[in-house]
Amino acid sequence: MRKYLQLLVGTSISSVFLYLVLRKVELSKFLLAFKSADYHWVAYAAIILFLHFFLRILRWKVLLWPIGQVSLSSITGTMFISFFVNNFLPARLGDVMRGFLLSKRENVPLSSSIATLIAEKFLDGLAILSSFGLLTVFFKKNHLDIASYKLLLVGTYFTLALFILTALAFYLIKYSPDTFLRFLKSSWKEKTRLYFSSFSKGLDWMGNPFQFGISLLLSYGVWVLYALGIQTLCKSFYIKVPFYVSFLTMVAICILTTLPFTPGYVGTYHAATTYCLAFYGVPMAEAAAVAFLYHGMFFVISSLPGVFFLWYYHISFRSLREVVKD
Fold first, then answer.
1. Which residues contact 212 (CB under 8 A, 6 or more apart)?
2. Residue 88 burial by Cβ neighbours in a 10 Å radius (0-12, 13-18, 19+)
3. Measured between alpha carbons, how far is 159 from 161 in angstroms, rounded to an integer?
4. Is 298 in contact with 226 (CB distance < 8 Å)?
5. b/e per residue 137-158 (b: at least 16 CB within 10 A)
6. Within-domain flag for 191
7. From the CB of residue 222, how many other CB atoms can be counted at a distance below 10 Å?
8. What's the CA gap between 141 and 238, in Å, rounded?
9. How many structural domains does the chain have?
10. Cα separation of 177 and 156, whole Å?
11. Is 186 within the bounds of a domain?
């Protein structure tokens, strides 16, 4: 019953956001945008998107260094399987399954594996937060678009709050776990202490300046490449916007696709891309064309390797749920 309720909620949310996009798009202009597009730029955008995934794989490899030798093939396979699951199921189940699959394949403690996944979100927040800061300075210095400047400030403060809370939680778990344990029942403390010990192993990269620096640098690369992919795809539809607009579009996608119920980010992805580009003067038809094509590219490029690795690991789509239950 709960599964069907999640599907119903997710489908409803996706439908609402798709309606908000499509109701303002003229079908003839939308189709004309695809007909007249320069698909050489689409190929370049696809290459950039591949590089984006490659950097994400490398970053997870770096975060796993302190835990032990984890094969790059297992990291690649489990990551693409998680993308595949996220593309078809709601609630970001792929993120959870990634930790379970890696733990089973490489004998990595589950809590340590989960810690590195949370660390990815932490690094993403730090990279985006600092980029927000640079953009707000840029906007203020050049007296550009006061509405965008205020929006950036709100986003900066919100991201900063999340970043501080996450950093504080990481610090307490790694260096002062008793701060959390004092609020637990005595019967739970020992089991939780063991879990924190294993979890903190996945945070060892924080105490290594080299690993922290490499991980953060890769995080910048991940999101710069994603924004560059949007910028490149815009060229295929003869859309000329500054790079910061593509970056802000990427940020809008990140924020709106955090809604956990929409399978494959359908609707939320399209609304974030379309309305952000339209806000900067891009016609709705062309903005929607960018949204649908980039989402389709992401969907295909992330799903096909996931299908291959499911076959390679002899895992059925149905059995993925059992991976989490075991």
1. 205, 206
2. middle
3. 5
4. no
5. eebeeeeeeeebbebbeebbee
6. no
7. 22
8. 29
9. 1
10. 29
11. no
Q: Please report whether residue 17 resides in a domain.
A: yes
With beta carbons less than 8 A apart as the criterion, state whether 159 and 150 touch: no
Q: Which two tokens stand for residue 71?
A: 């094969």
pLDDT value, residue 295: 95
- Rounded to 5 degrees, what angle do the CA atoms 174, 179, 182 make? 135
Structural contact between residues 83 and 257, judged by C-beta atoms closer than 8 angstroms = no
- For residue range 7-60, list pLDDT tens digits in order: 677 788 888 899 999 998 999 999 999 999 999 999 999 999 999 999 999 999
Quickly state the pLDDT bin for 109 (edges 50, 70, 90). Answer: confident
Which tokens hold the place of 242? 């500054």
pLDDT at 65: 86
Q: Which two tokens stand for residue 163?
A: 């970043």
Does 108 or 80 have the greater pLDDT score? Answer: 80
| Average pLDDT of span 104-126 | 83
To the question of pTM greater than 0.90 for the whole model, the response is no
| 109/306 Cα distance (integer angstroms) | 23
pLDDT tens column, 233-292 = 999 999 999 888 898 889 888 878 776 667 788 888 999 999 989 988 899 999 999 999
> Residue with structure tokens 């990815």?
120
Mean residue pLDDT across the chain: 81
Structural domain span for residue 69: 10-111+204-325
101 domain-assigned: yes
